[in-house]
Amino acid sequence: MPLHDCPPESGPLQILEGSHRFGLTDADPATGCISMATALGGEWFGGPINAGDVLIFNSLTVHAASPNFSSQLRISLDCRFQDYERALDPATLVFPGKSGGKSWEKTYANWRSDDLKYFWKRIPLQFKPSKSELEQLAQTADSPLMRSRFARILSQLESQL
After folding, report:
1. Distances in whole angstroms, Cα of residue 71 to Cα of each of 9, 10, 12, 67, 100
2. Same-domain pairing of 2 and 65
């Protein structure tokens, strides 16, 4: 949901038509992103979106921001919902890439209340892949990039959860 008007030159969100029908799409292990060139689906659709507009789509829908050619920063709200009884990919709780020193401690550093910090630690989450599967993947994944990615996810899980 954009918090300001986002005309085409500001790089609004675009979605890949029908991509949700192809199931979970593998991300590039080096970037953690899905390549627009290789993602399966129809045509890319996007256009202007205005403050308060809401775009709802399936979590399997491949999506990306258009290039931002303006001097305006895009600011939006992203909400995701999942039943905590369903398995959760642990990569969604850690920071992507090399994370540049990002951490939940830094994210929460200036919060005035502790009530919602680390809320997921109080929920009996099931991870898929599990921590033991991540350990094995960090040793046996096909490419060094994937082994590194699984090791990083595992390391962040252990230090932040």
Report:
1. 9, 8, 14, 12, 24
2. yes
**Are residues 114 and 69 both part of a single domain?**
no
Structure confidence at residue 10 as a pLDDT band (50, 70, 90): very high
Q: Measured in whole angstroms, how far is the alpha carbon of residue 153 from the centre of its chain?
A: 13
Q: What is the DSSP letter of 46?
A: E
Identify the DSSP state of 102: -
Structural domain boundaries enclosing 133: 90-160
pLDDT at 97 over 60: no
67 to 27, 28, 51, 76: CA distances (angstroms): 20, 19, 19, 15
Residues 76 and 106 in one domain: no
Residue spans of beta strands (DSSP E) within the chain: 13-16, 44-46, 63-65
Whole-number Cα distances in Å, 81 to 61, 68, 84, 88, 149: 15, 28, 9, 11, 25
Of 64, 81, 98, the residue at which a domain comes to its end is: 81
Residue 18 sits in the same domain as residue 70: yes
pTM beyond 0.70: the answer is no
Number of domains forming the structure of the chain: 2
